Amino acid sequence: MADSYPADGGTYGEKPRRRRGRRALIILIILLLVLGALLVVADRVAAGVAERVVADQVDQQLTKKNVQASAPEVTVGGFPFLTQVLGGRYDSINVVLRDLQGPVQGTNATVRVPELTADARNVTASLDTLRSGQGEVTAETVQGTATVAYDSVVALIDQPGVELREQDGKLAVTASVRVPILEQNLTVRGTAKLTVQGTDIVVDVDQLTADDLPENPLVQSFITGFAKDLSVKVPLPALPFDLELQEVRPLPNGLAVTGSARNVSLSEVR
Questions:
Q1: Pairing of strands 254-265, 138-148
Q2: What is the distance between the alpha carbons of residues 175 and 161, in angstroms, rounded to a whole number?
Q3: I need a surface site. Which of 12, 87, 212, 227 has the fewest CB within 10 A?
């Protein structure tokens, strides 16, 4: 009896072996995908734990400085996170604080900071600190930006009818003033120079003008004096992370002040 062979010239049993090989490869790929997904989930869970620990530590700092704010929003950067945990060093941690309010020493005013964003780099925190929530969390550098609401600045100026706004990258000032010499009210306009002095923002109104302002030396002198009355120092509430103010600029929603610090503790050691 003659032997029979597959029509394609192969041998019986070859196709089942190929199917088994492909099936094993598919199973291996699925297992690797599942393992990768589990590692990503574990990585994000660990990052979430670290974010909660840092948020708690920052909240303690604010309480100690008598500063009120919404709950800190913390985001840990860098991936994979687990390798950072094992090394105890993290690429970056971003902290957002909203609605900061703190007393201004020597006044009844309260300076309102709608938002403060801090970017901490090269952060060190031990695994034990993350596990227990106790210990030191330090950053090599911190860059921060805080926004001061215009209504807080106007409250400190304490003059009726004052408006502040950003215009062409400058701080524009508008105010209404009663000029006794003319026995009438004038709407005066000008710009203010912004500088940083220690922990204060200095708003310096050096020149004002008005429509149809008469060239009367007495009137001009009065307007110059009124400009000085509009100038003010804006002391910020105690900022976290020991930020040192560096620059201030006007934005549509307020004055944005930037600061930085080195070798900063993000925590309160307990």
A1: antiparallel
A2: 5
A3: 212
Report the C-alpha gap between 51 and 49 in whole angstroms: 5
86-129: pLDDT as tens digits? 667 777 888 898 888 766 666 666 677 888 998 988 888 776 66
Residue ranges of domains in the chain: 152-235
| Radius of gyration, CA atoms only, the chain | 32
- Exposed, middle or buried: residue 239 (CB in 10 Å: 0-12, 13-18, 19+)? buried
Residue position matching structure tokens 């913390």: 74
What CA–CA distance (Å, rounded) separates 62 from 149?
19
Q: DSSP letters along 104-130, please? A: PTTSS-EEEEEEEEEEEEEEE--HHHH
Alpha carbon distance, N-terminus to C-terminus of the chain: 92
Sheet with 163-167, strands from edge to edge, namely 163-167, 170-179, 184-197, 200-210, 232-235
pTM: 0.70
Backbone region of residue 226 per phi and psi (left: phi > 0; alpha: psi in -120 to 50; beta: other values) = alpha
